[in-house]
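W.,

You were right to be curious about this one. When I first looked at the sequence I had no strong expectations either way, so I just let the prediction run and decided to look at it fresh. Below is the sequence, 363 residues in total, followed by the output.
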Amino acid sequence: MTTLSSDLCYDILKRLDGATLASASCACASFSSMSKEERLWENVCSSMWPSTNRDDVKKLISQIGGFKKFYSDCFPLIVNKNVSEFTWSDYPEYAEELTEAEYYGDFDEFQSVSPSDFVSIVDIRYKDKTICSKVIWGIPNANGFNGWFSNCPFRIDLFSFSDRGDDNTGGVTLSVADGLPLVTSMERERKDGKLWQELRDGIRLSWIVVNTKAKKAANLSSWSPLGGQRHWPTEKDFLLRFGSILPAKDIIPCQMVECILAMKFQVSEASGIETSLELSELCMQLGDMEGAHVNGRNSLLVLNEALSCDRSKNYNLALESCHLYSKVQSEIKEEKMRYENRLDKLWILGGISVFVTLCRYFM
């Protein structure tokens, strides 16, 4: 290594991806020293997240600690290790006598988190080709703590709001030229599902949330789809679901929530000549164990908490925690239904007993 010039070593390192560059920094002292160069990590980030090429995003990343820190925060995916420990007996019921202050938690803590503190950096790829890059500054339409945002379900729609310094406000389309299979008709697609399978296998989503005040960032997406529905709500719609499991301890009763990133494509043309899909919707919501959407007030606290939770470079662990959450969620719903059925039976038996008692009394 001592015989190689520093320029040649630098030229080698700048061709590496992030994971390989991190490994190379452990190989020798010269690589370790050179790998601290911010330009190397800027190249890595711009290659993986094209949104970071924007001047305003570059300035933001520099303010929160630099590109190396940004990569180490956002490349690993969020892993919630407490999902497997959660059972039906741990799920608390919402007590009717619960006061508003007790339900919403500490107001002082909420006041320390502002919607304007958050920035969303979103990149969509299809078969390693970037098809959409957008940035949203703040939480759109969050007009104040005491307004509708605090108590209404939290939701961010990517294509409903124009970006600062971004002319691309939608119109994202995939075609045969991008690698889509040729579909002769929707009837054929309904039978073989070839277009749906190609879309699921090829699409990738990164949704990074940055807190400018706390100078922290995290990727809330699962990168690859967790599931979806084809031909819903219409036969030309394809709905894909990404997300992660976020901690919500001391924020809401169920202690954890699901970050739901819903992406919808619509078939704009399907013939023997051309097949094209248009990205019509991409949004973020937070849902609890019962499937109810979390309000804006609690969502800000959850997002702030998520920036400090456990992460892993093993994508399978992140996917496993999401699937395990869905399994636990289904078990809780089934157990709750059984519990409610038992209560219904008790009410029916009680009603019959009262009826029989009254009949015998009057006879």
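Here's what jumped out at me. The radius of gyration is 25 Å. And, maybe more interesting for your project: The first strand starts at residue 77 and ends at 78.

Coffee later to discuss?

I.
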